[in-house]
# Entry
Amino acid sequence: MTKKERFAYVLHYFETHTPNAETELIYDNPYQLLVAVILSAQCTDKRVNLTTPAIFAQYPDVYALSNATFDDLFPLIRSISYPNNKTKHLIGMAQMVVADFNGEIPATVAELVKLPGVGRKTANVITSVVHQQPNMAVDTHVFRVSARIGLTTNAKTPLQTELQLLKYIPKEKVHVAHHWLILHGRYTCVARTPKCGECGIRPACKYYGQLIKAQ
# Structure
């Protein structure tokens, strides 16, 4: 199977079985999504969703958050991983959005990555989820799943993975393909013991093909 054929098979499978895949983070607007994605770094979406309601109740918009103090915000995110840094990042992000972007969450990767706590992955998430831009966010799930299936070859960094995926995924499908790969990695192609027995893309998976050969 060529790489082009592998991509075609995988994308068709996901499009058929989970056509409307979306983020599991709960949010109502771009501000809330940005806060949630910053908090989600090395933390589960479930934990973030348990934490954000109190934050949004106390800081309903970016202006309110820009006026937060460390001592007021920190207790609300104490249960999140790296709470010290994330508290500082959230306040700094809000202050920059207010000062430099008139209180509007930026809509481009180049602008978003200027914000404290926002790297390329987070910027790609915001632009793809909110604006359906063809940007591929690569987290640990996407990185692992892409390599296992054989969608990427010898990709050593998230950026290398991103560029290889963008080469074969049609632009109009990139924003949803990001969620397909994440959810597949979260629930089926899990890190330690992938659930190959219930995986529908086995015929196109390099990892599974190697398992069969080894038997």
